[in-house]
């Protein structure tokens, strides 16, 4: 019996057209623009100035808060500017512009392919290395990895889950690294397992990636670390959602508002595991990642999986890959279910970039919405068990208390509801906006309660 | 470069559409429609056509001239209403009675409430009950017109009608196999249980509906029927008779499962179905009418908002 999450889910056509495209290394552009917001949390603070010479792998920005990450230069060259620039959604963010000169790497970085299989034993030092190398979660949320791998006192990791589900249609970069870098990923898992105190590690992979499943199983067997296994998962979206994956692998549910560690789970993407391997064993900071060039209107021979460096302009990558294909109506960064439509191709790759997805108008254009027929298919599809039709209606009437009572804050924005809706109602648009408002209200209430408690404490006792 | 589309995710949509769902319901009703035309002849086909044209035409007129908004007839929901209405009246029903039914179904039960998705009561059921109360003679004239299978018009009565008139003796020796295949006498669509069940299987396979409402109606009718039968088999018919006769199959498969007028959650659907089943049996045995499915569905339609408030799907992480 194949494992899967229990509630909801949808079955979009997986379109893994580029599954057999081996990873190719992108040549260096003339200039890179490295964003200070490469991760969830506070943007990093640049520590380089115009005119500085930098090497690839050198720190160029420090964390801007507890939830933040180091950013390193991905190239060697001269800093040309430290200035705001538009990211792919069109928002301004500070970028460090570096003119590429040669390809010289900072000292101590091992760029060879030699496998380092010995697992370190010092937890604190390993965590520090992961942090210093700027490793963030590469499954989409880009949450700083060292924070997740260092559970708060009182929390104990019972299972490390490696996310190789890659449930988003079209994307194949995780598939490729699992085939081409299987051993590195398994070593990364062993390192994280050590950091977490030796809990078992499970590598979850959807059934539609048989080559990846066999490659990873082989690597696990050959390396022979204890307590690491591969689990075949049913092809169902969003199998790779953190809460869904925990449910599939551990049969547990994370309580609303809780963190995965509250049920003993730590989830990391397979690409993050590779980055951990490179950071800890090779001293190589996170400045490269793999992305897929794909889409329904891109001929299969023009599809690629590229090893890119952070800061490469998307327009440069698109040009190198053969230009924007005829018939592309929308370019998405990420998968078709949760990715962002790109409004600005001058934006640059970041640590978490995963794709350039070219979609045709027929494939992607929204159809006109009609009346809700109360079929309940959105509620059946919702992996969180919510009632999107109801949330949509409540949101339109700005009924904030009722929205909270109906758990809108649990929504993971996976898009299953809108994908399914036979009336083409843009449910997620409305729900996302209302969710932001409700969570703002909840935060304000929590802050007010905290302030009141502190004031009561500070007041003189009578 | 051409202009690019930019919108929030998701960037892809399933092939599901309202139109496709309604088309599936029409397809699921085809076996029953074909069988009734075979048995009741061209006249039945004419009634189906009149009913559909009246429902669709009326919706078009209302959206075009009264509401002055974009026509919604392309969603095919009016076709479903028209077809269901035709299958819910006797094959002898005058065409103008059907037109009045269509006016009530679309004009009152559907469009007055705001059109598809807004109506509290199933339009076809509401119209059937309206006609039953307004034109009882036409609505209970069970003369069987000449069709393609048998060529002479004969006077018939429904099994439930016979039971209501003559008690248990009147229905002794009913051949259930015959009833399952062609239960002559009754509303046009009730003729063949097999044809209706084929539609049910199609709807389930296409995942248009879930089975819970239908199954809980059957279960309740069977259990309630069994209880009465056990108490006094000399007065009450057996549960198989209860299930196969009248509008139980047509109502439970096609009318009670109407998205708009049934509960959203699975358990809500079960409560709804049990309510319909109980009311059906009570009306049959203690009410003024021999058949109670339509009334039962209509009454339970009114409880749907309450049921929806009480029953929700299971949420993740909220156990």
Question: In summary, what is this structure?
Answer:
The complex is a heterodimer of chains A (462) and B (319). With 462 residues, chain A is an alpha/beta fold.
Q: Can you put this structure into words, describing what you see?
A:
The complex is a heterodimer of chains A (462) and B (319). Chain A is an alpha/beta fold and 462 residues long. Chain A has 14 helices and 17 strands. In chain A, strand 15 and strand 16 form a beta hairpin. With 319 residues, chain B is mainly α. In chain B, 60% of the residues lie in helices and 0% in strands. Chain B folds into 2 domains: 122 residues, no CATH class; 152 residues, no CATH class.
Shape of chain A: globular
Number of domains of chain B: 2
Number of helical runs of chain B?
Answer: 14
* Structural class by sheet pairing and helices of chain B: mainly alpha
**Helical segment tally of chain A?**
14
Major sheet description of chain A: 6 strands, mixed
What is the CATH homology-level superfamily of the largest domain in chain A? Answer: NADH-ubiquinone oxidoreductase 51kDa subunit
Rg estimate of chain B, integer Å: 20 Å
CATH topology of the largest domain in chain A: Rossmann fold
Give the proportion of residues in helices of chain B: 55-70%
User: Oligomeric status of the shown chains?
Assistant: heterodimer
Which whole number gives the mean pLDDT of chain B?
88
The first-to-last residue Cα distance of chain A is 65 Å
Low-pLDDT ranges of chain A: none
| Structure classification of chain A | alpha/beta
Helix and strand string of chain B, N-terminal first? HHHHHHHHHHHHHH
By DSSP, the count of extended strands of chain A is: 17
The count of domains of chain A is: 2
- What percent of the residues of chain A sit in helical stretches (DSSP H or I)? 25-40%
Radius of gyration of chain A: 22 Å
